[in-house]
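Late entry, written up from scratch paper. The run itself happened at the end of the previous shift, but nothing got recorded in the book at the time, so transcribing now.
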Amino acid sequence: MDNIQFLIYLLIMAGSTYLIRAVPFAAVKKKINNTFIRSFLYYIPYTVLTAMTFPAALYATNSMISAAIGLAVAIGIAIWKKDLTIVAVAACVTVFVSEYVIGLL
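Output as recorded:
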């Protein structure tokens, strides 16, 4: 990924997370009491970031198989409520070992 592409992704992520939180403050003068709208506004930034990150996680390695294995390990460890550092290291080690094994085959 070159620097221009990275900056474009960064601006899109920053814009999506900032605008979705700033627009309601500018447009609405009173507190929003509707639980559906509050929930919608709360989860939109996470949804956008996930939609942008998930495909990149699958195409970041030489093999989609090793990426899927690493992603599965990361999801599994995250479900056990481990720290982000542990999840990231375990996923990286899993992808490294998977790439090595695939290279041997």
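Residues 3-27 form the longest helix (25 residues).
(Scratch paper discarded after transcription.)
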